[in-house]
Design a protein that fits this description.
The protein is of the alpha+beta class. 23% of the residues lie in helices and 27% in strands. It folds into 4 domains: 65 residues, no CATH class; 73 residues, GMP Synthetase, Chain A, domain 3, CATH 3.30.300; 54 residues, no CATH class; 43 residues. The chain is built from 8 helices and 12 strands. The chain is flat and about 80 Å long.
Length: 294
């Protein structure tokens, strides 16, 4: 008799939250999109099952178990607390002003289903540390919430919470529409894709490099591997010239040919030495032998 396969479910706590894995092996007929109660670092929460995986292998991952399918009463409690979100945000903003907490902007409030834990998100233009103990105590007292966490969000997360039109003109920003986590974006990605480095061209509404610079970057990198680099000398049907621009998506290059001018050629129309010559290392004359020094 074989052991029962382990059921690993991916649970999401909001539309754009990360997916967290839990052990649902105690349930025989658990289904996608069911709402379940699980224990988290923020107390018990209700989340939606968005993926199910059955495996006979030991993943080596220590997973918390799904406690139960959420009851109607628990779902009502969750919705009741969500309906108080605007009230909590308004109170927190007013109290922060009364406490003279400068440059504090209250953005959002998140509750677990029974209201025993709340996370209050805020942004600040200053890097100075702000004492939020009084604000935290007042919120706990006003709304009878046992545990209140006040969390500062970075620029990308602030843009995600606020939403609105993207820098490219799309009605809803990518981060607010479907991104569940942020990747590391670099200037090199813009260079690989031949995008202008003008700030308005590569900067999102959050003031950081646009998340979309990552979307096609891997494809551009792969395409560039088949093309010569800029300033490389190549042989074309119209003579030898120097590469001055690359067009990765159409697998072509722009070549400057003496007495001919600039002409575009596809990769199969050019030839060049693809070997990379190692750069000679400069040698220092009469360099002291450190091994002899003591």
């Amino acid at each position: 008799m074989t052991d029962k396969p382990m059921a690993i479910v991916g649970v999401r706590f909001s539309k754009l939250s990360k997916i967290y894995n839990f052990d649902a092996s105690d349930f025989d007929d658990i289904k996608l999109h069911e709402l379940v109660v699980v224990e988290t670092s923020r107390g018990k929460q209700i989340g939606e099952i968005v993926k199910i995986e059955h495996t006979d292998e030991n993943t080596g991952e220590s997973l918390k178990k799904v406690e139960r399918i959420a009851t109607a009463g628990e779902l009502v409690s969750k919705e009741t607390w969500n309906m108080r979100k605007d009230e909590v945000i308004a109170y927190s903003a007013k109290r922060a002003a009364e406490l003279r907490l400068k440059d504090i902007r209250i953005l959002n409030a998140e509750f677990n289903y029974d209201g025993t834990y709340m996370v209050l998100n805020y942004s600040s233009q200053t890097e100075e540390k702000v004492d939020l103990k009084s604000l935290k105590y007042d919120i706990q007292k006003a709304f009878s919430i046992n545990n209140v966490e006040i969390k500062q969000l970075g620029p990308r997360d602030v843009a995600k919470v606020i939403g609105g039109m993207g820098a490219c003109g799309v009605p809803c920003r990518c981060c607010s529409a479907y991104l569940t986590e942020f990747s590391s974006i670099s200037i090199k990605m813009a260079k690989e894709q031949g995008i202008s480095l003008t700030p308005s061209e590569i900067t999102g509404m959050c003031g950081r490099l646009r998340c979309c610079l990552e979307y096609e970057n891997d494809y551009y990198v792969e395409c560039r591997k088949t093309l010569p680099k800029k300033k490389k000398k190549v042989m074309t049907p119209q003579g030898e010239g120097k590469v001055i621009e690359l067009f990765p998506l159409r697998n072509a290059v722009l070549v400057d040919i003496p007495e001919v001018g600039r002409r575009e050629f596809t990769r199969d129309q050019i030839t060049y030495d693809e070997t990379v010559q190692p750069q000679p290392q400069p040698q220092r004359e009469n360099a002291p032998d450190k091994r002899r020094q003591s």
